[in-house]
């Protein structure tokens, strides 16, 4: 299965498409990644976020990945 990996800013844009008034910020997503709450890959300065895992976490259906 291929995961839909997005940068932090692309993840924010995808969330805004779903909910234009969402309060989720890039900093929020970075913190979730660094705390191991969302599956992601750290590549140098860039963080690639598993979009499906992020959406699952934000909807309350996910487990931690730490």
Total number of beta strands: 3
Content-based structural category: alpha+beta
Mean pLDDT: 92
**Helix content, binned percent:** 40-55%
Strand content: 15-25%
Give unreliable regions as ranges: none
Helix/strand order, N-terminal first: EHHEEH
Q: How big is the Rg?
A: 11 Å
Strand order within the widest beta sheet? 1-3-2
End-to-end distance: 21 Å
Sheet with most strands: 3 strands, antiparallel
Classify the oligomer. single chain
Task: Specify the overall morphology.
Answer: globular
Which features characterize this protein?
66 residues, alpha+beta, three-stranded antiparallel β-sheet
Question: What does the model show?
Answer:
With 66 residues, the chain is of the alpha+beta class. The protein is 42% helix and 18% strand. The protein has a 3-stranded antiparallel sheet with strand order 1-3-2. The relative contact order is 0.24. The mean pLDDT is 92.
Task: Produce the secondary structure layout.
Blueprint: E1 5-7, H1 8-18, H2 26-34, E2 40-43, E3 46-50, H3 51-58
Antiparallel strand pairs: 1-3, 2-3
